[in-house]
């Protein structure tokens, strides 16, 4: 679907939603908007797509209370703003939307904080079945990058340009745009995708030539990956049939980073089929690695223990592999960073650790 087609559909869906509110008024009904309940207890595994999606439980935003009426009023003002933005072919950030509401003529329509405006965009995504990227809404800069033997064509305001993600970029790599669906994959010599949590490890891999030696596309997740990062990873897997691996620290928060790439997140479960790559494999650091390589570690904090215990009940981690690894980590009471592999030398990660793990997983 072309960019223009997406924009036209986005406007149509927004207008349809506003008309639905109007029709409810005209029919003597109290306006309302029904949404899935966004909690861990309301996500379930979809065997057809292999990702976690919202279940059947819903909540209703209704104008039968002052609080509910305010929310619907803010929704209408936001719809009007987004429609105008699309008509003018403009874009704005989530942060700007929060401040822009201060200029709206009804004080009751102003957002109290950015969390509220962010949630409003998520609500409109769900009820309209249109992504915020097609609303021309951008997050603040994520800075996530990729580096490897991939040639792309990118649409920009100055026209199209072709980029080779090794030869035409500096050591920092190619920065992933807010809407990676504007990218066309032209050619590649990639054997697999390696998603890396930290900038330090990403730089180590590039400095050691790992992308050249193994025909690898290195994607820097920059911590919890932005939607654009997860979207391009999914496209790389689905359209180019590339194996995807995720290389993170050995702690519960990093396991959630992997989970967001592979299975989606509670916050964006309505977009799991658009963002998640359930075939992605976790490549480390594992609790078993802490034991096998005697890695430098830190003790688990109470918050780490609570997070691990929570993951044992999280449907995204209810597999034999994750239960075994999490229970081992609780038993040893330790966590380790990717950079802990440097205790065995700066080249250990690229010469030994990753090749052995990738070979064992039949990726190389």
Automatic annotation (TrEMBL):
Which coenzyme or cofactor does it need?
A: Mg(2+)
Tell me the PANTHER family matching this sequence: MEIOTIC RECOMBINATION PROTEIN SPO11 (PTHR10848:SF0)
Record GO cellular component, one term: chromosome
Enzyme Commission identifier(s): 5.6.2.2
Q: Extract the GO molecular function terms from the UniProt entry.
A: ATP binding; DNA binding; DNA topoisomerase type II (double strand cut, ATP-hydrolyzing) activity; magnesium ion binding
Q: Which organism is it from?
A: Halohasta litchfieldiae
Name the catalytic site residues: 99 (o-(5'-phospho-dna)-tyrosine intermediate)
Give the Pfam families listed for this entry.
TOP6A-Spo11_Toprim (PF21180), Topo_VI_alpha (PF20768), TP6A_N (PF04406)
Q: What is this protein called?
A: Type 2 DNA topoisomerase 6 subunit A
Residues engaged in binding Mg(2+): 197, 249
């Amino acid at each position: 679907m072309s960019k223009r087609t997406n924009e036209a559909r986005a406007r149509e869906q927004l207008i349809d939603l506003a008309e639905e509110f109007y029709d409810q008024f005209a029919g003597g009904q109290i306006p309302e908007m029904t949404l899935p309940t966004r909690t861990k207890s309301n996500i379930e595994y979809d065997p057809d797509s292999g990702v976690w999606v919202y279940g059947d439980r819903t909540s209703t935003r209704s104008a039968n209370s002052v609080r509910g009426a305010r929310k619907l009023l803010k929704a209408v003002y936001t719809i009007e703003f987004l429609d105008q933005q699309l008509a003018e072919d403009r874009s704005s950030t989530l942060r700007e939307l929060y401040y822009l509401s201060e200029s709206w003529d009804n004080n009751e329509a102003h957002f109290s904080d950015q969390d509220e405006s962010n949630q409003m965009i998520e609500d409109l995504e769900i009820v309209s079945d249109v992504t915020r990227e097609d609303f021309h809404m951008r997050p603040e800069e994520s800075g996530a990058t990729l580096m490897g033997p991939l040639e792309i064509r990118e649409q920009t305001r100055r026209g199209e340009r072709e980029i080779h993600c090794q030869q035409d970029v500096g050591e920092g790599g190619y920065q992933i745009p807010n809407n990676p669906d504007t990218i066309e994959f032209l050619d590649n010599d990639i054997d697999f995708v390696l998603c890396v949590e930290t900038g330090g490890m990403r730089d180590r891999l590039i400095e050691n030539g790992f992308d050249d030696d193994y025909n690898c596309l290195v994607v820097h997740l920059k911590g919890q990956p932005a939607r654009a990062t997860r979207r391009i990873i999914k496209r790389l897997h689905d359209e180019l049939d590339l194996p995807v691996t995720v290389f993170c620290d050995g702690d519960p928060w990093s396991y959630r980073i992997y989970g967001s790439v592979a299975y989606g997140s509670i916050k964006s479960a309505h977009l799991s089929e658009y963002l998640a790559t359930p075939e992605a494999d976790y490549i480390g650091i594992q609790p078993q690695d802490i034991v096998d390589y005697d890695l430098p570690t830190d003790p688990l904090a109470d918050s780490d223990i609570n997070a691990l215990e929570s993951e044992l009940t999280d449907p995204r981690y209810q597999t034999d592999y994750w239960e075994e690894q999490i229970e081992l980590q609780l038993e040893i009471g330790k966590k380790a960073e990717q950079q802990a592999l440097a205790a065995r030398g700066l080249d250990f990660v690229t010469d030994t650790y990753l090749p052995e793990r990738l070979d064992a997983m039949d990726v190389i």
